[in-house]
Amino acid sequence: xxxxxxxxxxxxxxxxxxxxxxxNQSTLKAIECIDKNQTVKILDIGCGVGSHTFLMAKSLENAxxxxxxxxxxxxxxxxxxxxxxxxxxxxxxxxxxxxxxxFEDSSFDYIFAEGSIYIAGFETGLKEWKRFLxxxxxxxxxxxxxxxxxxxxxxxxxxxxNYPQIDSIENKNIQAENLGYEVVNHFILPKEAWTDNYxxxxxxxxxxxxxxxxxxxIALEVARMIQEEIDLYTNHGTEYSxxxxxxxxx
Length: 250
What we know:
The chain has about 250 residues and is of the alpha/beta class. The protein has helices spanning about 5-10, 25-30, 50-60, 70-85, 115-120, 120-130, 155-160, 170-180, 190-210, 215-235, and strands at about 40-45, 65-70, 90-95, 110-115, 135-145, 165-170, 180-190, 240-250. It is built from ten helices and eight strands.
């Protein structure tokens, strides 16, 4: 069977611990608001292969975590790892789209979405997911945001084409407040979360793809698209970043 573009994207991210910018310190900082002594139920939206999920679960020994991703391959890997780590009694991966969640209202104390809310759109995610939170529950997410008022033409053009909802931290906080959340905390991911943990291994993978498929137009287009993103961050990474937002539903 001939491979589709999505198959090459999947190959580009093969064997990577993190499928987006992130680092352990930032994940742990984001969940500092969760009382380790309390029994809580957490929904992790867009868990990927679970790197941040298992870090969170190991840190919060009284937490039950339901993690969703729309990739059955990622969820298979996720549940296999959960058994390896002896966490399958309280950590479960489900293949489910964030657009078709079937959970009952007020099911979770916390919603966690690391590097995934952009798929729904920041405001849409905050609005649509709120009903799954218990009263005064918290939504913790990382969202691409401008971290300077002086953006280059290249960065603005790229993000307006790929994610026009990018905005300043101040405006993201206002959006959250307008949707019925109190902003408890926010912080910017460090540069290493983009480079060491994400773009360095991703660059290795796409270099291997270029060598493997020297005349495959679809594979080379996937490599080109990813290379464009890496190069943009190399040249303009001081202008934007993922920012963790800790938001309490009112």
